[in-house]
Amino acid sequence: MTLEKKLHIAFDPVYAHPLPEGHRFPMDKYELIPAQLLYEGTINEHHLFRPMPCNDDDILLTHDAEYLRKLKEQNLSASEQRRIGFPQSPALTYRELIITQGTIDCCQYAFENGVSLNVAGGTHHAFTDRGEGFCLLNDFAVASNYLLHHKLSEKILIIDLDVHQGNGTASIFKNNPQVFTYSMHGKNNYPFHKEKSHLDIELPDGISDNEYNELLQNSLQKILHQFDPSFAFYLSGVDVLETDKFGKLKLSIKGCAQRDAIVFNYLKQRKIPCVVAMGGGYSPDIKTIVEAHCNTFRQAKDIFELD
């Protein structure tokens, strides 16, 4: 008898609602993504799980104790809050703790089923000692260090295809040979001072589907062959779309889905478990953002042949 292999998705309603007034959009997407997937029958309620807040010990494998104390005691300075882009609040910190634990929890499901997804996450601008760019805690970094600390994986690949470089992630792992950071991002986009990933591919403005996906295929193939990871994290930002207000690239919805399929097919072929987080997306029409993100879930379920 074979055990059921099911898609597991981290989601908590708190993802969508704790931000201060005036800072909700594009947070609507965290509510609308699972709603759309449920409506169309791609998933049902049994695919969703609700994480608990991440504990301090796991966070402190990555982040400084003083920074964590400031987050929890609401002691960030005005300049630190400006760098993050949100005013501090207990609800915002709680949201980050939930998201981070969701990514850790997804790891176990990925080991079991090949892939698992977090409706939120991909907070790649958070550094060890500070937050930036709407990111307080770096969920991929925390989860990677959790796997290494508990000897659940020896070599981890972080695939960051958000349009913005994962500068926090690159900084955190710059001296760690067990984690390979790979960022394919807009050359002329935030952050304007970029850190050095193990591999950075800087994209010119206006790059379209075929050129983008050819670059991805060639570079990912080489990384997988040379680094040979035992686990992968994939940040599937949809701010690469032509419709995005800030992205400056020209991928179509179809091209973005093809991008996801390339990543999933390569990882599945090599039997590398993968955890996915959604990252950014700022198209003016929320339906475009939701559809592009939902494609990631559809591709994951189909390619990994999950119930």
TrEMBL record:
Stored InterPro entries: HDAC_classIV, HDACs, His_deacetylse_dom, His_deacetylse_dom_sf, Ureohydrolase_dom_sf
Statement: the UniProt record of this protein carries the keyword Manganese: no
Entry's Gene Ontology molecular function annotations: histone deacetylase activity; hydrolase activity
UniProt domain Histone deacetylase: residue ranges: 23-294
Record carries keyword Isomerase: no
UniProt KW keywords: Hydrolase
GO biological process, one term: epigenetic regulation of gene expression
SUPFAM superfamilies per UniProt: Arginase/deacetylase
Family per record: Belongs to the histone deacetylase family.
PANTHER family: HISTONE DEACETYLASE 12, HISTONE DEACETYLASE HDAC1-RELATED
The name this protein goes by in its record: Acetoin utilization deacetylase AcuC
Organism: Flavisolibacter ginsengisoli DSM 18119
Lineage summary: Bacteria, Pseudomonadati, Bacteroidota, Chitinophagia, Chitinophagales
